């Protein structure tokens, strides 16, 4: 006689969502991933954020078909009582299965080798301009070219963190360390830790690190309640300093983006020298040391401090374009307070994300981020296929009456600044809580 299934309720499942006790549901089966969280390639944070709930859609999005065979060793023997699947999730899973059958997740036709050669060429021209020219203008252009090579290396780092861009895992790792740590001075380990959290908790003010820029920026007045960052494990205090800085954020945003990589340097150092478990810590630190050897030496070869400062500013400012691009897709989209939910994965990703409309010949400029909705729904999908699958995603959104927001690069910038300005004006009201006349209200009303 077959053994009857054992069930637990959703409430009982939610009791297992703290460090040292992590259970998740995948297709109605309950898995204990507590021990696995210490070895999980994506880190423990995604498992912790989705613990105590159904995580099937997130699992489908992030894992290849081979991963399903490893689930059984984590099976608790329990099933989720009254497990059901929404029509949106059914269609999302069907779409993922169709893309898999078409081989889209394996066909990486975006020419990583060619892009690596272009990066090497840009880097070589920049070095040549510094060492072999006495022209201040050439030195300025060399700094700009170096910044552009950092942008392109950033796209390789982004892609290689989501899927294998090289012929083997070993070469994939080499590409990551070379383009991220050695060339750009950014820890690829820190980026993956940060970026995975962003994808899982897209636009959660408490769980998404890409929206946690207090006291410099606040994309929503909800941050004025001094929320807690569960990523950085600190309170984001909205004090007098934050209020002042946020009040002018729509003016300071672009200047700050010109030097945003300084924050990435700091975050990389804090990550690599923290007490947390860092995979391949030695490789990561060695790569960072390579950057902090060649870059200061290159700058020191310039004839005077004025040109050295000009070179650094030019390289950082050009790279600032990429930092702006990272913000465009999310700053003006819907935000929420609270943990991410696995039960409405598709809806949360589309609500919190914006696509950039551009011609196909401009895809190199956006590095795949122009199809951010598609990328968030299918993060393992190589960027060369994002334009191809976009109509299918649009059709699914239309079928279920879900948002599919798009804007031109210019319009997206306008929307982002309007979002920052709206929050800035609200911050000013809090700092000057005096009655305003009707003219002031008319001028500053948004809607």
Please give a structural write-up:
The chain has 447 residues and is of the alpha/beta class. The chain is 54% helix and 7% strand. It has helices at residues 10-13, 44-50, 56-62, 87-101, 112-132, 136-162, 169-184, 188-200, 240-247, 249-257, 261-272, 281-300, 305-328, 345-351, 363-366, 372-377, 386-399, 409-431, 438-443; strands at residues 6-8, 17-18, 21-26, 29-32, 75-80, 228-229, 234-235, 354-357, 405-408. The strands form 3 sheets. A 5-stranded mixed beta sheet has the order 1-5-4-3-2. Strands 6-7 form a two-stranded antiparallel ribbon. Strands 8-9 form a two-stranded parallel sheet. Strand 6 (228-229) and strand 7 (234-235) form a beta hairpin. The longest helix is centred in the middle third of the chain and has 27 residues, at 136-162. The protein is globular, with a radius of gyration of 23 Å. The N and C termini lie far apart (65 Å).
Number of DSSP helices? Answer: 19
Helix content: 40-55%
Low-pLDDT segments: none
* Secondary-structure class: alpha/beta
User: What is the N-to-C order of secondary-structure elements (H for helix, E for strand)?
Assistant: EHEEEHHEHHHHHEEHHHHHHEHHHEHH
What is the first-to-last residue Cα distance?
A: 65 Å
Report the β-strand fraction as a percent range: 5-15%
Q: Kindly provide the radius of gyration, computed on alpha-carbon positions and rounded to a whole number of angstroms.
A: 23 Å
Overall morphology = globular
Major sheet summary line: 5 strands, mixed
Going across the major beta sheet, what is the strand order? 1-5-4-3-2
Report the strand count. Answer: 9
The average pLDDT is: 90
């Amino acid at each position: 006689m077959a053994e009857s299934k054992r069930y637990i309720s959703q409430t009982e499942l939610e009791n297992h969502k703290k460090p040292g006790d992590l259970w998740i549901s995948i297709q109605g089966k309950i898995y204990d991933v507590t021990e696995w969280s210490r070895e999980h390639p994506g880190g423990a944070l995604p498992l912790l954020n989705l613990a105590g709930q159904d995580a099937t859609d997130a699992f489908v999005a992030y894992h290849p078909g081979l991963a399903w065979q490893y689930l059984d060793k984590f099976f608790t023997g329990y099933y989720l009582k009254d497990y059901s699947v929404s029509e949106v999730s059914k269609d999302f899973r069907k779409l993922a299965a169709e893309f898999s059958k078409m081989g889209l997740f394996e066909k990486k036709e975006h020419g990583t080798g060619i892009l690596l050669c272009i990066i090497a060429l840009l880097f070589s021209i920049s070095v040549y301009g510094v060492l072999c020219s006495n022209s201040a203008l050439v030195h300025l252009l060399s700094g700009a070219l170096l910044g552009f090579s950092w942008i392109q290396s950033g796209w390789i780092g982004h892609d290689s963190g989501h899927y294998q861009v090289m012929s083997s895992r070993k070469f994939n790792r080499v590409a990551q360390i070379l383009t991220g740590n050695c060339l750009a001075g950014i820890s690829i380990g820190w980026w993956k830790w940060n970026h995975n959290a962003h994808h899982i908790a897209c636009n959660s003010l408490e769980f998404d690190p890409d929206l946690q820029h207090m006291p410099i920026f606040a994309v929503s007045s909800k941050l004025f309640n001094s929320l807690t960052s569960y990523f950085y494990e600190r309170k984001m205090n909205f004090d007098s300093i934050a209020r002042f800085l946020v009040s002018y954020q729509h003016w300071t945003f672009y200047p700050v983006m010109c030097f945003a990589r300084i924050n990435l340097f700091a975050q990389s150092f804090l990550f690599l020298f923290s007490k947390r478990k860092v995979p391949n810590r030695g490789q990561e630190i060695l790569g960072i040391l390579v950057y902090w050897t060649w870059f200061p030496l290159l700058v020191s070869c310039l004839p005077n401090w004025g040109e050295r400062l000009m070179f650094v500013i030019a390289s950082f400012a050009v790279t600032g374009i990429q930092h702006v691009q990272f913000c465009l897709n999310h700053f003006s989209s819907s935000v929420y307070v609270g943990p991410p939910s696995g039960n409405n994965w598709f809806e949360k990703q589309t609500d919190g994300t914006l696509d950039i409309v551009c011609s196909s010949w401009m895809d190199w400029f956006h590095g795949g981020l122009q199809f951010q909705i598609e990328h968030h729904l299918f993060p393992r999908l190589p960027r060369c296929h994002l334009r191809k699958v976009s109509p299918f995603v649009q059709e699914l959104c239309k079928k279920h009456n879900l948002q599919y927001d798009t804007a031109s690069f210019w319009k997206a910038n306008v929307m982002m600044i309007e979002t920052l300005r709206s929050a800035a004006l609200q911050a000013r009201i809090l700092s000057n809580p005096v009655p305003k006349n009707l003219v002031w209200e008319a001028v500053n009303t948004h809607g």
